[in-house]
């Protein structure tokens, strides 16, 4: 494990960090909603991803099928991709690029309705599981909001099962919910809008307070106006009128090892920004000796 992690140490591109000898065992995880892998590639996603030094990159809204991805987007640098495609072409889809081959890859979480939409991929590395996740958006109208609520009802028991498994879990992706007023610019005017509804926020509070998962970014960075998505309308990007709806949500063991978190905004690959988290894995390995399979 330690030899593998030493070989994977690279500075984070977004803030040009340099790490001393105490940080020789860093694990970097990136998540980004691509809003179409072909579109993101046209904007420079692939060369950027190759240089991030990431060990895993979770992507959402791939909006492509296997015949488009294979041979073109199934590998980024020395990270190999694994994908859960939606049945509907040009819709949804998630993926995970990983430097180390996982021991197992699970597609879907057992819901026929939502597994057909390509919303969940879990890669297992011994006692560590990394999930790429895309929750439905309800902004298109009441029928989509109803679908979102059905997803929340179906997904909570799966989160409970993950928590009971005793493994370290990181669920990275677009959760389509801003949890607290600090997580969006205009929170007062959005309290009746999808993504900041009281029911959605209460559901996410249960994930944290009852199930014991941790919002890793907020553990590291408590500052306001740290957003991951901006509407394409008006001048939302220029004025930083955004929402923080992309998360890395983790079990306490791995969340406690997070040493840095960044939202990369120097370049735009989609309407979302990459969220980058660095974990000090030497301490995590001490919690699970010999059971984290990354090398």
Describe the structure.
By secondary structure, this protein is an alpha+beta fold. 26% of the residues lie in helices and 25% in strands. It has ten helices and 15 strands. It has a seven-stranded mixed beta sheet. The chain has a six-stranded mixed beta sheet with strand order 6-7-8-9-13-10. Strands 11-12 form a two-stranded antiparallel ribbon. The longest helix is centred in the middle third of the chain and has 23 residues, at 142-164. Residues 1-24 have low confidence and may be disordered.
Radius of gyration: 18 Å
Unreliable stretches: 1-24
N- to C-terminal distance? 5 Å
Q: What oligomeric state best describes the polypeptide chains here?
A: single chain
Question: What class would the helix/strand composition place it in?
Answer: alpha+beta
The tally of helices reads 10
Tally of strands: 15
As laid out across the biggest beta sheet, the strand order is: 3-4-5-2-1-15-14
Estimate the global geometry from the Cα principal axes: globular
Q: Into which percentage range does the β-strand content fall?
A: 15-25%
Question: Which key features would you list for this structure?
Answer:
6-stranded mixed sheet, alpha+beta, 7-stranded mixed sheet, globular
In short:
The protein is α+β, with helices and mostly antiparallel strands. The chain has 10 helices and 15 strands.
Produce the secondary structure layout.
Layout: H1 2-7, E1 26-33, H2 37-42, H3 45-51, E2 56-60, H4 66-69, E3 75-76, E4 79-84, E5 94-98, E6 104-107, H5 112-115, E7 120-125, E8 128-134, H6 142-164, E9 168-174, H7 198-209, E10 214-215, H8 216-220, E11 229-230, E12 242-243, E13 246-250, H9 252-255, E14 258-263, E15 275-280, H10 281-287
Parallel strand pairs: 1-2, 8-9
Antiparallel strand pairs: 1-15, 2-5, 3-4, 4-5, 6-7, 7-8, 9-13, 10-13, 11-12, 14-15
């Amino acid at each position: 494990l330690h030899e593998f992690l030493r070989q994977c140490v690279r500075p984070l591109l977004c803030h040009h960090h340099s790490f001393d000898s105490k940080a020789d065992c860093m694990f970097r995880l990136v998540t980004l909603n691509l809003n179409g892998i072909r579109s993101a590639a046209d904007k420079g996603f692939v060369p950027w991803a190759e240089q991030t030094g990431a060990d895993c990159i979770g992507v959402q809204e791939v909006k492509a099928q296997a015949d488009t991805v294979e041979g073109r987007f199934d590998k980024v640098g020395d990270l190999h991709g694994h994908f859960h495609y939606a049945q509907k072409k040009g819709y949804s889809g998630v993926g995970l690029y990983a430097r180390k081959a996982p021991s197992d890859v699970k597609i879907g979480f057992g819901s026929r309705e939502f597994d057909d939409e390509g919303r969940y991929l879990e890669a297992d590395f011994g006692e560590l599981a990394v999930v790429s996740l895309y929750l439905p958006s309800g902004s298109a109208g009441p029928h989509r909001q109803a679908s979102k609520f059905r997803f929340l009802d179906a997904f909570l028991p799966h989160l409970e099962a993950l928590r009971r498994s005793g493994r370290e879990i990181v669920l990275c992706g677009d959760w389509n919910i801003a949890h607290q007023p600090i997580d969006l610019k205009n929170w007062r005017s959005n309290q009746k809008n999808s993504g900041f509804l009281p029911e959605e926020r209460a559901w996410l509070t249960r994930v944290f307070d009852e199930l014991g998962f941790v919002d890793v970014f907020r553990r590291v960075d408590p500052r306001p106006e740290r957003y991951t998505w901006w509407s394409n309308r008006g001048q939302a990007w220029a004025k930083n009128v955004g929402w923080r709806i992309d998360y890395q949500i983790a079990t306490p063991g791995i969340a406690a090892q997070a040493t840095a978190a960044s939202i990369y905004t120097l370049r735009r690959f989609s309407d979302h920004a990459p969220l980058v988290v660095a974990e000090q894995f030497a301490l995590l390995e001490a919690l699970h000796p010999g059971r984290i399979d990354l090398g």
